[in-house]
Amino acid sequence: MTTLKATAPPVGPDPSAAFADATASESALRRFLHGLPGVDQVGAEQRAAALGTRSIKTTAKAFALDLAIRMVDLTTLEGMDTHGKVKALCAKAMHPDPTDPGCPSTAAVCVYPDMVATAKKALGSSEVHVAAVATAFPSGRAALDIKLADTADAVEAGADEIDMVIDRGAFLSGRYLEVFEEILAVRAACARPDGGHAHLKVIFETGELQTYDNVRRASWLAMMAGAHFIKTSTGKVQPAATLPVTMIMLEAVRDFREATGQMVGVKPAGGIRHSKDAIKYLVTVNEIAGEDWLDPDWFRFGASTLLNDLLMQRSRMRTGHYSGPDYVTLD
Amino acid sequence: MSARLDVKKTYKLYIDGEFPRSESGRSYVVADAKGGFLANASQASRKDARDAVRAARSAFGGWSGRTAYNRGQVVYRIAEVLESRRDQFEAELRSSEGVTPAKARTFVDAAIDRLVWYAGWADKIAQVVGGANPVAGPYFNHSAPEPSGVIAIIAPAGPLLGLVSVVAPVIACGNTCVVIASEPHPLTAITLAEVMATSDLPGGVVNVLTGSVAEIAPWLASHSDVNGIDLTGVNDPDLGRTLEEAAAENLKRVRRPGLEDLLATPALDRMTKFLETKTVWHPMGL
Amino acid sequence: MPNNSAQFEYAPAPESPAIVDIKPSYGLFIDGEFVDGHGKSFKTISPSTEEVLAEVAEANDADVDLAVKAARRAYTRVWSKMSGAERGKYLFRIARIIQERAREFAVLESIDNGKPIKETRDVDIPLVAAHFFYYGGWADKLEYALPGNGNRGADPQPLGVAGQVIPWNFPLLMLAWKIAPALACGNTVVLKPAETTPLTALLFAEVCQQADLPPGVVNIITGAGETGRAIVAHPGVDKVAFTGSTDVGRAIAKAVAGTNKRVTLELGGKAANIVFDDAPLDQAIEGIVNGIFFNQGHVCCAGSRLLVQESVADEVIAKLKRRMKTLRVGDPLDKNTDIGAINSAEQLAKIRELSDIGEAEGAGRWSPACDLPQTGFWFPPTIFTGVSQAHRIAREEIFGPVLSILTFRTPKEAVEKANNTPFGLSAGIWTDKGSRILWMASQLRAGVVWSNTFNRFDPASPFGGYKESGYGREGGRHGLEAYLR
After folding, report:
1. What is the pLDDT of residue A1?
2. Average of per-residue pLDDT across B8-12
3. Which domains, and CATH codes, for chain A?
4. What ipTM was estimated for this complex?
């Protein structure tokens, strides 16, 4: 087993210093994480369901649809991905609705590391970021040095954001410190030679963590290790993102800011296909974490098919009639 | 040779496990079946009633907190001790009520058996009247009976079986009580109190007052620290109505006047009247 | 840090009132028909706009007599003779019609009561239908209703005519709680809705007609306190069921003294909602909010006293305040409204008075900033900190969106404070420790104990109080006991 040494992160405040006591040992970290308030599943799901009943109409809906488009990490993570596919995805990300110049671009495209260079080139000087999944995505089952190399490779190729997966096996067997130190190490690997660094999103694969207590603990663990974003899922495991899981993570970032003054972003990924669902997430962001998080810098949707549904709804709002799949681009 | 002089018994009240005289110092004459002098009984006052309620209230937490099994054992123990003193009760019934020896035996038998019957109910009533509620949601939900608290009882005539029939269901379920014994026939009630005092029954669970129902009952009916009132032994409808009205002030559970056939197997209503249903919800989740 | 420019302002999302057809005036529903009353009439208004909705008959003694006689006739000639299975089918039919007309009922309830459409749509009306379904199924199984009781399970009998008086806080739901078990058991009813909220009961009368319920089985007569008194006092009434204030409950208990009338009372409360330091805090906050702000706090089992362990008091209060800032107060018909209008000017005055007393007694008063409409009856969600058991706002039922916050140090202290009230309707416990939940639940003198949840209702779950919160249970098998002998 590799013993990790925490390296100073490239930039930005390092929250791990504020939690030096809590992360001093395996037992201290366990005590801290298990000392977080529990989550009652039934109550949490009821709260999320209630937020889902908010009725978002007219101007609020128009605002939400545009915001949701700006928050999309347009994703392709398939074995059959090709450079051509990625280029097409980038074109779509920059101009989701070619017929409407007023339509915003998405936040990022999300690809495997070997596609980063292609994406970077295709996106050129646009503001769309390139996010790369790394660390032996999606299972995370590889030696640490391979995960770090995977990360460094993507960063070197120009990735603006790294979406890493945690070692769920280590987490579920209670080796929290190992998970913590791995995040620190990946964060260090996000450094670029020019002194900048890629933003780090930490994927929990909440479908494998199974309980909301685990989601809350993983959230704090990742935030203490300096994650810039916490992300629900790889999209490869069911269930992927759910509204209650996302709500628990939003509570965590809210409480973390309360405790440290630092904001951390949240990214639900996988399974969000309809505008109506996306709007429920935005309502949840608004009412749980607060309006400060209603920004692509602090909330993202990891999705592929969602974008077209957002576009069709947007067209419906604009034209007054329903659109159809033939009127949005399929790439 | 001169005849030996009898040692006559002084009948006192039974409050908080003790046998005090009435604080008022009063007593009244209890006649035998033929109208002759039988004994003096204490004539309880409102202050005795107040003390009895206080005793019943302080005994309630401990008694209701015991396991139902244990309460059943204690009530059964009363039956055992009563059985061992049955000759005395038969004699008292004959002298005070003038019943035949056979009838006295029947009443004593029935009283003992009634105690055994209720002793057995102590740890079964919750299963019969409580249960799981299949609510439409992810919740564990169940209802169980709990004792109402301090119960005032106006005991019916039939000094042994009547008294046992109204007291046993109340205490088997975990309530404590203040009983006003049958006014004309209070002596057996006090003898029964002596049985209870020697039967592992904690002091204060049953408190027995003797005296005037019309004088004492209104104080119990209007007492804010009494949770229920059993008017079984009230014969005067006007008094019954007045007591029920007074009991309404703090929403006491009221059993209205009237007596069932005491020799028949009872229904559950003497227990359920003074039981509250508590329903507890808890979510079921990971 | 954040650079959001626009706020996510929810645009108005009003439910259309067009679905309801409110008539200018309503008579009494007696013997299957709407008839003119012999007394005066009164106006029912929308508490959110103060607009007059309709003119409603005020039943006088003669009307009450007619209704009781109609109920008696229906009882002797039809309803008590009908098989349980057939009675049950009427209840199922009513349940289905309510589901079909759910939107109409939800809108009308919201308009007449002032409560948010979100609640009438998601809570009140679905529970109403569920109650009729639940008790419909009991009607032909009554031999299992009273284990060992009375006739020892053999052949329980209905009581006769039930006189039922219900409050304004859950108008149609309380009607369902009363009528469904009464009818299932073979009784007929005379029901009086509250004077401020008669409209859904009158719409229910139409449902009875639509269901072809035999005339006289259900009679709905409107009126105020005098009408209620007349029902309770009527010698033809065999059973009185009341939900409302403890003071009126007391008066009813006195009125039936010395009679053979059976009575059940579901009265006031001052429930403790107890939060331990190991509670699932985010859900506890929801439970606190739901406990006191659900239905504007017009809930007899509201968690109106928050008992929070001292070690987490500051954290809980901070979280609660933050949560309260997201509560949306306003138009009851807006689907995003969390807190609607106070039901009446009279109730608003009472809430204001007690809140002012709380302030005068030195408790710290706080409400989030919220724009209240100019017309109608409104009160912002309010908390009082630093409250002690000696304060009036910790003892008296405010029946509004006003929470009194007290602290405790140990479980025993929590139990003592929770039980230190003449009421005993409900209680809440929030802790992650299972054995403590069960211990607390056993110690609390209250008829309903919600642990790690609050304000949950179900037709299968018995509901009712200890002590001055009344007696008898509604819901579940226990709910049948009030209507059988």
Report:
1. 34
2. 87
3. 22-319 (3.20.20.70)
4. 0.96
Residue to substitute from A31, A34, A40, A281, interface C, most C β-carbons within 10 A: A40
Would the CB atoms of A42 and B138 count as touching at under 8 Å?
yes
Tell me the chain C residues in contact with residue A292 when contact means C-beta distances shorter than 8 Å: 1-2, 4
Tell me, yes or no, whether C11 lies in a domain.
no
Asked if C243 and C129 sit in the same domain, the reply is yes
Read off the DSSP letter of residue C79: I
Tokens representing B142 are 């169940």
First to last CA, chain C: 70
Closest CA relative to residue B263, chosen from B81, B120, B106: B106
How many alpha carbons fall within 13 Å on the CB side of residue A230? 28
How many helices (H) and strands (E) chain A has is answered by 14, 8
Tens of pLDDT, residues C77-88: 999 999 999 999
Q: Does residue C130 sit at the B interface (CB-CB below 8 Å)? A: yes
Residue in A130, A97, A132, A156 with CA at minimum distance from that of residue A327 = A97
Q: For residue A251, give the nearest of C2, C282, C452 by CB distance.
A: C282
Q: CA of A41: which chain B residue's CA is closest?
A: B285
What predicted TM-score, i.e. pTM, was given to this entire model?
0.96
Contact B229, B151 (CB under 8 A): yes
Evaluate whether residue C463 is within a structural domain. Answer: no
Chain C residues in contact with B244 (beta carbon < 8 A): 253-254, 257-258
pLDDT tens profile A245-297? 999 999 999 999 999 999 999 999 999 999 999 999 999 999 999 999 999 99
Q: Are residues C55 and C148 in the same domain?
A: yes
Question: C183 and C219, same structural domain?
Answer: yes
C123 belongs to a structural domain:
yes
Extended strands (E) in B181-237: 206-209, 228-230
CA atoms within a 13 Å half-sphere pointing along the CA-CB vector of A31 = 9
Amino acid at C142: L
Of residues A61, A147, A201, A231, which has the active-site annotation?
A231
Q: Residues in chain B, how many?
A: 286
> What CATH number should be reported for the domain holding residue C443?
3.40.309.10
Contact in structure between C224 and C196 (CB atoms under 8 Å): no
| Chain-centre distance for alpha carbon A261 | 20
Residue A157 reports pLDDT greater than 90 = yes
Instruction: Please judge whether A41 and B285 are an interchain contact, meaning their C-beta atoms are less than 8 angstroms apart.
Output: yes
In a domain, C10, yes or no: no
* Contact residues on chain B for A45, CB-CB shorter than 8 A: 285
Domain around C446: 272-458
C300 is catalytic: yes
Question: Is residue C235 domain-shared with residue C284, that is, in the same domain?
Answer: no
**Are C256 and C362 in the same domain?**
no
Q: Is A263 on the interface with C (CB under 8 A)?
A: yes
Average of per-residue pLDDT across B259-276: 94
Distance from CA of B130 to the nearest CA of A (A): 25
Q: Give yes or no: residues C82 and C188 share one domain.
A: yes
Total domain count for chain C?
2
Residue C1: is its pLDDT beyond 60?
Answer: no
Q: Tell me the mean pLDDT in the region C271-287.
A: 98
Tell me the CA distances in angstroms from A252 to A22, A246, A248, A285, one per residue in order. 17, 10, 6, 12
Distance of CA A169 to the CA centre of its chain: 20
Exactly one of A163, A167, A213, A309 is catalytic; name it: A163
Which residue does chain C place closest to A56, by CA atoms? C10
Element (H or E) spanning A181, and its range? Answer: helix A176-189
C301 and C318 belong to one structural domain: yes
Please tell me whether residues C173 and C60 are part of one structural domain: yes
Q: Could you tell me the end-to-end alpha-carbon distance of chain A, in angstroms, rounded to an integer?
A: 43
Q: Name chain A contacts of B136, Cβ cutoff 8 Å.
A: none
Q: Show the domains of chain B with their CATH numbers.
A: 27-283 (3.40.605.10)
Instruction: Provide the number of CB pairs (under 8 Å) joining chain A to chain C.
Output: 85
Instruction: Determine whether A61 is an active site residue.
Output: no
Question: Residue C40 sits in a domain of what CATH number?
Answer: 3.40.605.10
